[in-house]
Amino acid sequence: MLAAAALAAATTSYHPVVGAPATACGLVAGSIGVFTSWPQAWRLWVGRRHAGLSLSTNLMGVLYGVAWLLYGFLCHSAVQIATSVAGLAGATAVLIGHLVRARVSPRSWLPWFALGLLVVAVTFAGGRTVLGLTASVATIVGVVPQLLALTSASGRSRSGDASGVSRSRWGLSVACNLLWVGYGAIVGDHLILVNSVIIAALASSIVLLATRAQPEVAVETAARAMASAASAAS
Question: What is the pLDDT of residues 168-182, one digit of tens each?
Answer without folding.
Answer: 999 999 999 999 888
